[in-house]
Amino acid sequence: MLDGAVSRLTRRRLARREPIRGVIARSRMTNLSSLSYAAFGGPAGTSRIAHFLDWLAARRGLGTSMRVLDVGCGPGRMFPAFRALGWEVTSMEPDLDFHEAAILAATAAGYEPPLPGGFLEIDAAERFDLVTAINDPFAHMLTGRDRADALRRVFRALRPNGVVLLDVPNFLWILKHYRAPEPMRAAVPGGEVHLRREHRVDFHAAVFTTVEHYDLIRGGEHHPSSKTHAYAMTTLPELVYHLESAGFAGLETYGSWDARDEERIEGSRLILSAVRPTSPRHER
């Protein structure tokens, strides 16, 4: 599973991690941030994404039996949907808490444990039919240099006619319509989770930061945790530039997971797909 998928550095990192059984046992007891995060996304959302991916695979002529690289898999909420589609999936997750939770989800879905790391650890050659980055992983590439490097690595990892799918926030729309986030709550087995978000914007670096404060309440006891996410405020023209510079062609944009044709970007999400051509113009 590891050969050719990630860099030697990542393989060393994986070798140093504790045995999978230990991770699973510890994650079940202490991974409060992943449990709380997962409470605010459920089967309805993953079902919409799965239907979109099934449509996209058919639209791009990828067939039904595919090798997929899911970068930034989070706690692994998409694994059951990938399994239902019959896809062979290699997953990666750089966040340690989410990585531990994803091990449980991958095991339950019958997949190999996800690899630690993200875009900058990809080191494969013509191995995958589809590379997905669902729910913002690419937005965590905070510099133009890292975004360019990430897409060059994705390009090399795809087979000819393979497809990359990027899903990032559309911050031009978000800032225009910005409102302070309101508190949220969600039910979990045996209790509920309260979520309070705060936002910070660094206009000089073009970085939008979200701090998520969770409070898991069970049996009258409070279990607080927090998670910080930094996002590059990348525009569609910049993404198109980086994709084309990496060698991709056939770019399409979609406004939501309900799209069933190419759409203009008019809302809070910026979803793109692009193809590695059979005869690329160049490969940097």
TrEMBL record:
Protein name per UniProt: Methyltransferase domain-containing protein
Entry keyword set: Transferase
Pfam family for this entry, one: Methyltransf_23
GO molecular function: transferase activity
SUPFAM superfamilies listed in its UniProt record: S-adenosyl-L-methionine-dependent methyltransferases
Cross-referenced InterPro entries: SAM-dependent_MTases_sf
Matching CDD domains: AdoMet_MTases
